[in-house]
Amino acid sequence: MTRLRLAFLSALLLLVLVGCGDKELQSVKVGEVTRSIFYAPLYAAIEKDYFEKHGLQIELTTIPGGDKTMTALLSDGIDIALIGAETSVYVDGQHPNDPIVNFAQLTQTDGTFLVARDQNSEFSWDALKGSTFLGQRVGGMPQMAGEFVLKKNGINPQQDLTLIQNIDFANIANAFASGTGDYVQLFEPTASIFEQKGIGKIVASFGEELGAIPYTGFMTKESTLKADDFITNFTKALYEAQQWVYEAPAKDVAQAISPYFEDTDLALIEQVVERYRAQKSYAENPVIDEDEFQNLLDVMTEAGTLDHDVQYSKLVNRSIADEVVK
Q1: Coiled coil: which residue ranges (predicted)?
Q2: What are the structural domains of the chain?
């Protein structure tokens, strides 16, 4: 009897262990507005299995354009959107039945750099006066932040230079490479690639000039936030990746995220990671700070795109991030 009982218990234990090993992961659809080394902690969280550790399987889709990414979220095409926080402000002004809520921050500075075509002259902001500046889309955070920085340095974007804003985001770099503009506002790694190829020279960082701001973050519908605890697990995984991205050697970070940039040299990815880490562009934790959010609203106000009162407590739920960081 004893042997039979032991055999039964052993078989039962084996079934339990197998069952645990085969535990099904919860699928979460995430839409990113673009593919960028600026988003390194997200890719690291996927590749280092932080999401899997917390029971999640991420289905990542790149949906070019903030409006398209938000449409996908509103229509339930995705569960979570990685997009500029200003987009949630625009949607809030339309009074949706199911509000959009920001719950975690990914980047905390502007991620663009000023690239000059003339690589020989000494740079000063005054040099932009009378030049042709190839900017970003009207109403988008890169353009609003860019204009804010120009004004901070005594440049009136509408009067002191020729501002080109009618080129699609995906074609801005090609336009500059083809000879349009004296200056251009670019994300990495394009800015560094242009410098390597002799097309232009990085002369200033909009991130360093602008300071801390919730530039890009994760948002979802209020109903999703209330209905399912996967948002908590998502935030836990993100926070672990954010810590790892700052603690690990830049080379290891570059190696981890390299599958997302197959056409980019590994050494260049490492260089860009170092640059973004040095200016603290990657958020060190998922908490969206109220003062930083106010900086975002100040930028939008200066750009003339904020047309209604915005309540931080309505657009940001920081309770999950606060608990995760604790």
Answers
A1: none
A2: 25-109+213-325 (3.40.190.10), 112-210 (3.40.190.10)
